[in-house]
Amino acid sequence: MSDPIEAAIFETLAKADPKGVGGKSVEPADVAKHIQTEQWQRVLPKVRATALHLMRQGRLTITKKGKVVDPTNFRGVTRLRLPTEAETATALAALPPKPEVDDDFA
User: Fold this and answer.
1) Is 22 left (phi over 0), alpha (psi -120 to 50) or beta?
2) If DSSP states are collapsed to H, E and C, what string results for the chain?
3) How far apart are CA 42 and CA 47, in angstroms?
4) 77: closest CA among 85, 67, 86, 87?
5) What is the pTM of this model?
């Protein structure tokens, strides 16, 4: 994991749920404060963008009032948590298919 924002998201989640039981969530602002204590508001848009990217990959879930948000259309106060197996499967199924690689030209 080379992205420091991605690492901070998962570190903050690990602190919230040290036993890895699942279901615990954190605010994107908590992650931003973990990255930059003083001027965390500057980092917050990057945290949200990274969280959305991770959600589309099936590696993170974004919720609003306890319900999973539609990654294409949401606003307002959200929370981040680790996805369930079903949420991961749904996110991966929504990804566009990977183009087949022709070994003759690779």
Assistant:
1) left
2) CCCHHHHHHHHHHHHHCCCCCCCCEECHHHHHHHHCCCCHHHHHHHHHHHHHHHHHCCCCEEEECCEECCCCCCCCCCEEECCCHHHHHHHHHHCCCCCCCCCCCC
3) 10
4) 67
5) 0.79
Six-digit token string for 13: 């989640």
What Cα–Cα distance (Å) separates residue 64 from each residue in 11, 39, 46, 75?
A: 21, 25, 19, 9
Position 89: which residue type? A
Please write the tens of the pLDDT for every residue from 71-96.
888 888 999 998 888 877 777 777 77
Q: Which of 104, 20, 81, 5 is nearest to 50 (CA)?
A: 5
CB atoms within 10 A of CB 72: 8
- How is residue 76 written in tokens? 């307002």
Show the tokens assigned to 72.
């294409």
